[in-house]
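Write out this protein's structure.
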Amino acid sequence: MLNLDLSNVSPFLPGGWRLGEEKGLEKAHDHVLNGTGAGSDFLGWVRLPAGYDKEEFSRLQRAAEKIRSDSQALVVIGIGGSYLGARAVIETLTSNNYNLTRKDTPAIYFAGNGLSADAMGEVIELVKDVDFSVNVISKSGTTTEPAVAFRIFKALLEERYGKEGARGRIYATTDARRGALKGLADKEGYEEFVVPDNVGGRYSVLTAVGLLPIAVAGIDIQSLMDGAREEMERLARPGMDNPAWQYAAARHALYKAGKKVEILAGYEPSFRFFGEWWKQLFGESEGKEGKGLLPASVEFTADLHSMGQYIQQGERVMLETVVRFDKGRGSITIPDDPENVDGLNFLSGKTLDFVAEQAMRGTILAHVDGGVPNILLTVPGRDERSLGALIYFFEFACGISGYLLGVNPFDQPGVEAYKNNMYALLGKPGYEEQKAALEKRLES
């Protein structure tokens, strides 16, 4: 069970601050559970861990087994929520060096999440001499970055295996009924999985969007879902003892007290991409109407030697949420050095986990003393069940937090601004006037 510690938040807030948030929390909880607020069409994730499509779940497990049997690599094509969740889970549960440490599972490469020719060329080079498959993930099939990448890798597959052979190596995760990718998948006969209509991209990691690549990596997706379901049942109960209420209340109270940035800190290098997923979750959900905490993430202890200075003594605009995994997977003992050249013999015989724990405890106290409120979230272990619970905890708390802030947590209208400008500058039909206006601005 996840454990939330707010003891290093209360000193920064007036007495009784939790009671001041209770009425808003009750309303926000009702909005999330019962669909009584803005964006209610996108609440399919709330009961997903119990009500997911069991037939599709079994089918994607079989597809993952097929990919593991016939492919040395899987190219996952998607952007935003279409890849961040899968990569976060794969790296957190295996390693940030997954493709180097894997033994019996395919390498997994992510493409279509940017427009770098160098990055694309590198993935092409990595798969050119191995058998590979593609999982293209897009609700519409027309988002520029993944659509361009799919064109490229589809052509590579068809050149190598022929049209028929490529058909059996392309897996499309897309809309159930409409869209360019859905139409192409139907026409070509690709195996298809569904992006649910009522689940937004940043909440989709526990759908086929995330589960197929995660299963290919050899991760037990049933345990992942079980952990999420257990957390779903726990968080459904209203009240101030609900940890999602506590987390949302602390963030909101600190935001009202002047904090503008929330830093997610982890002490495992493999947790880095979980931070990237978390940033999208909260950034897209809360960052609108001129409101919202700016989500940032750091990897400790490495970033204590870079960002640590700013966190300790820079502008006092931040709070910190630390995710701690209670149990490591191995034990390394620090040896004795007879000459004690580095002066560290006081650590001889101690485990690296012990040293890391004291580093974390000391850092929290130093940051609190420096004026940074700290939330500590302890996760039982780096395993599927615990991570499923952590994912659901943040999703549920994010929905609550957005409603407390007074915004719709499930839309992202600001994302369209860059797309429209890009389409115009690229010469997309229908954008001629906008293209001329933008080019005039760029010339001035």
